[in-house]
Amino acid sequence: MTLPPPDQAQPQPQGQPQPPGQPQGPPPSYGPPAWSGPQMVPAPPVSGFAIASLVLSLVCLAPLGLVFGIIALVRIPRRGERGKGLAVAGVAVSGTVLLLALLAMAGALRFTVWSAGSPGGPVRGGGGTSVFALETGDCFTPATEVTRDNQGPLRNGTAERLPCGEPHRGEVYGSFELTGQGAFPGTEEVMKTSRDRCAALLTDYVLDFTAYGHLQTYFYYPDRGGWARGGRTVLCWAGRPQGNLEESIRKDESDFEPAQFAYVSAFQPLMEAQLRAPQQGPDEDLAAASRWAGQMAAAYTEVVGALGEVRDGLPEDVRAQAGEIVVIFEAAVPEWERAARAADTGAFLAAIERAEADNDVIAGLDADVRTGLGLPAPEDAGTGEGEGDGAGTRAS
C-alpha cells in the first residue's frame, strides 16, 4: 500500500467504520490528517547570545563576551534553545582574559610605584596618585601612614596631593636613583645610602629647621622585590613625627635677611649630622654609633667656626648670646670625640650625656638670638632635637 505524502489528507471510504480503538475522524475536507506517517522533529534554535559570547571572547572583547554568555545561560533553559556549551566556553574564555588583564594592571601599578617619572595624578580625590609621581615641592598625605617604628612595607603606594597651605602629612624635598648596582645590595645598604643622601638634600631645601619645631625625615625605597621589578628611586620627604604641617618647609636665601641667613646657615652642618644618626643604638652597633659621634664632633667644630665668623655681623643685642653658644659648642666637641673613641656602650653614653648637658641652655640662647633677628622661635625649638634619623618605608 502506498502512503500519501505527509501533507495530504487520507480519505476514508464512505460508509466504512473506523478500525476498532480509533476515534472517528473528521470529514476529509477539515483539519489535519489523522495520521501522516513518520516525520523529522525540527531541532531547537541555537542561542544567538551563546554564539556572540564565544566570538566576542576570542576577539578581545571579553567584557561583552562575559555578559552575553551569562545572558545565554539564563535564557537557554527558558526558551528551550541550544548552545549551552558555547555559552559556558564564552564565559570561561572571557573570565580568563579579564583575570589576566587585571593581573597585568596590578603588576603595572606596582612597578609604577617604584619608578620615577610616572605621570602625575590628581591634586585631590580620584583615588590619589603614585607616591613616586610626586615631585620635589609637592605637599601630600600618603595612603599608608608610617608605622610606629617608622619602618615597614608600603602597602598602598598612593598619596593625595594637597596645597601646602592646607594641613598635610609631608612634603617631598628630593629624590634620586640608586645607580651602580646590579644585584640587590641589601636592605641595610639601601637604607644607609638613602638616609645619607636624603639628609644632604634636606639641609639645602629647608635651611631653617627650628622654624618648624620637631621635624622628621622619611624616605620610600625599593626592597628586594621592588628592586627585581626595576625600582631604583628613593623619594625623600619630611613631616612632623605627630600631626600635620600647615605650610611649606621650603626656604632659600631669598626668604631671609642677610643676618638671618648667616645665622641659620651656620647650623647646617650640625643639622645634617643629626639626620645621619644610626637606626641602632650603641648597645646594638657601637661601631656605627662611634662613627656618627665622630661626624657630630666635626659638625660642632664647623658650627663653632661659622658662628664665630658671623657673630660680629649680628645685631649688637644678640651678639653676646651667639658668643655663649660658641663657647658651649666648643666645650662639647671633646665629649663627642670621646664618644667616637668609646670602648663600650657605657663610656659612649656617658660622653654623649656630657656633650648634651647644656642643650636646654643653648635652646634658650638660640631663642633669644632668633627673636632679635626676627626669626620664628617655637617653644619646642632647640639645636635640632627631634630631627629624624631618616626613617624609611620599603616597597613590597
From TrEMBL:
Residues 153-237 form the Septum formation-related domain. The keyword NAD does not apply. Residues 1-31 have a biased composition (Pro residues). Residues 383-396 have a biased composition (Gly residues). The chain crosses the membrane at residues 49-74, 86-109. Residues 50-103 form the DUF4190 domain. Keywords: Membrane, Transmembrane, Transmembrane helix. The keyword Endoplasmic reticulum does not apply. InterPro entries: DUF4190, Septum_form. Residues 1-38, 372-396 are annotated as: Disordered. This is DUF4190 domain-containing protein.
